[in-house]
# Entry
Amino acid sequence: MSDSFDLIVIGAGPGGYVCAIRAAQLGMTVACVEKRATLGGTCLNIGCIPSKALLQSSETFAETAHGLADHGIVVGDVRLDLARMQARKAEVVAANVKGVEFLFGKNRITWLKGSARIATPGSVDVDGTTYGARHIVIATGSESIPLPGVAVDEQRIVTSTGGLELAAVPAHLVVIGGGYIGLELGSVWRRLGARVTVVEFLDRLVPGMDLEIGKTFQRVLGKQGMAFRLSTKVVGAETDAEGVTLRLQPAAGGEESTLRADVVLLAIGRRAHTAGLGLAEIGVATDARGRIEIDAHYATNVPGIYAIGDVVAGPMLAHKAEEEGVALAERLAGQAGHVNYEVIPGVVYTWPEVAAIGRTEEALKDAGIAYRVGKFPFTANGRARAMGMTEGFVKILADAATDRILGAHIIGPDAGTLIAELATAMEFGASAEDVARTCHAHPTLSEAVKEAALAVAGRALHI
# Structure
């Protein structure tokens, strides 16, 4: 056996590398296995970071081409240099992954480069070399879910990976799936000039989010030029030199139809990625969806082996994985790390953004919980008007008896930033009145949060 460590983390995505860093801070000897040429996992390399770089660039392009005149700014012909836009994205990614490598060096974390297989509960094989470990953490993330009859080639039919690397703007992009990933990448290519059609099996977008938010979101994206085929199933795809022909069928059954596309983006969700780890051989239990089963302390049924992030149950979000990584590292060090799963925000980084935390109205109704609603539109917010970005609203749900905030939902400018205030409030058990009585600077977008909290008690000031 080669070197031995207190902890070996398999996977250097947000959950894995953060777990490794926190464990090293707490005095453990730590190694992290990563087979990519760079650290950061899917998120930094081919997910969160490059997609946000393209979202930002495409927003800037669209604003320059279509929005500056309203501000009295006149520009000449606006041209798209997609190659430069893609190069900038690569530069952003490179800076982020190099930052993680710097942190590994700073915290004396050993990067074991290669593919991992858990040989025994106390050892990990990395491309033929075996390393010992008191604790092993599986943080190998997720991969795109395939769709029968739709063969991905990352050229004409792409996952999010190929969808970030297109060398030309497609004339018609069809997105299969109305969730976060599909709508974000659909927004990118719509702004850059593509016609975009979203095909969704369910009768609504962003399933799991508040229904009112979802309906408003669809209306806003429709105004931006996106088309939607809801309650529709994709049953097959045929690719030729010019594009793709999709075969569609109503979700409830019925006659097939076809839809022609230059490029198809398959974005129907993600699944736990655990292939090659040898889990079955050592007896690590998984559920019906292939996720690793863990207890409240992230421990699997095999002593000494733990799992976090996308390979376990819960929302597949980078920040959820990070929180689990920190909590587990602290537990292994004898501390009391924990994650409050009731206050994990989710954000769709379109423009306007959509952000949510806690319960939806539908969930509260299903649970029989009496609640009050406070809403405030951005049309009545002075800063939003000055920005020319008045689409959307803030919605706060509070317990009818205690006034404790149970959920918050925002569609509007910088919703992903605004939701942080409500995350903090909910973490500390705040009431809507607590937020309402907190002084918010004027003029700011955050005043819409204060007004929504006031509206819970029917006393909003500016509507």
